[in-house]
Amino acid sequence: MCPTDPGKPDVAEERLVPLRLQKFLARSGVASRRGSEDLMTAGRVRVNDVVVTELGARIDPNVDVVTVDGEPVLPAGVPIYLILNKPMGYVTTMDDPQGRPTVRELVPPIPGIFPVGRLDMDTTGLLLFTTDGELSHRLLHPRYHVAKEYRVDVEGVPTDEELNRLRRGIELDDGVTRPALVEPLRAFEDHAVMRMTISEGRKRQVKRMFSAIGHPVLALHREGFGPLGVGDLALGTTRELTESEIEALAQAAKEVV
Q1: DSSP three-state, residue 225
Q2: Per the domain annotation, does 1 fall within a domain?
Q3: Exposed end of the chain (fewer CB within 10 Å): N or C?
């Protein structure tokens, strides 16, 4: 294992060797960058049979032997990217200690694949999966503000002024949101359907934003994530991304808004 070099982190980060351990784990599809760091701090990662918890640790993938929970981690091959049209009733995790149905049951058994972000158990729609931990890290990083588009069924019919509060940014218990794009689609006597696009990833954000203006969410469906759209993909099914979609996704993770 290579020693930490705190004096030149930016230069070393771009080199293949030595490579930060959490970056190696992410590139190998073990987990996202943040998830890889959690594995390290939990003492589940070993390098040459020595537990490594220091987040600045570096390795040489050509020499060092890395394991997670005793299983060897190999350098990444060709990354896999696919989308799932998630139905209701599934938890966005690959393993649920409570025994609830998970999205793992709906995707092919590809080693190292994991969901990018999450959807609530009662939320449907587009959920991206990949073995590319680096891209996942960038897509979820706040600096890139990757757009997420939803179709939202809400209780009651919001007024223009109420919707403008969402468009300007609204105060939640964790701070003011970034401005949202909100477009009314249909209005009924007791509920309304909206299209909403946000560029943050706070927990239950769409639901909390509409609750803040007095219109609780009745149903929530994610239609888009960055340049990706769920289209006519059937609920509970998956498809791999095209080359052009992968390129567009990578570009979205490079554009700082």
Answers
A1: strand
A2: no
A3: C
Question: Do 134 and 87 reside in the same domain of the chain?
Answer: yes
* Residues 208 and 234 reside in one and the same domain: no
- 123 CB-near residues (< 8 Å, 6+ apart): 86, 88, 220, 221, 222
Q: CB under 8 Å to 185, separation ≥6 — which residues?
A: 151, 192, 193, 194, 195
β-bridge partners, 225? 148, 228
In which domain, by residue range, is 106 found?
A: 81-142+228-252
Amino acid occupying residue 141: H
The pTM is what?
0.73
Give the CATH number for residue 54: 3.10.290.10
* Inter-residue contact 197 to 148 (CB < 8 Å): yes
The span from the CA of 105 to the CA of 236, in Å, is 10
pLDDT tens string 152-173:
999 999 999 999 999 999 999 9
Tell whether 3 is covered by a domain.
no
| Shared domain check, 156 and 221 | yes
What is the spatial distance between Cα 141 and Cα 144, in angstroms, rounded to a whole number? Answer: 6
Query: What contacts 115, CB < 8 A, 6 or more positions away?
Result: 92, 93, 94, 103, 127, 128, 129
Of 67, 30, 31, nearest in space to 51 by CA: 67
Active site residue 38: no
**Residues 122 and 28 placed together within one structural domain of the fold:** no
Mean pLDDT of the chain: 89
**Residue-wise pLDDT tens digits, 184-211:** 999 999 999 999 999 998 999 999 999 9
* Selected catalytic residue, list 120, 122, 132, 174: 120
Same domain, 198 and 243: no
- Mean of the pLDDT values across residues 140-160? 93
Q: If pLDDT is split at 50, 70 and 90, which confidence band does 2 have?
A: low
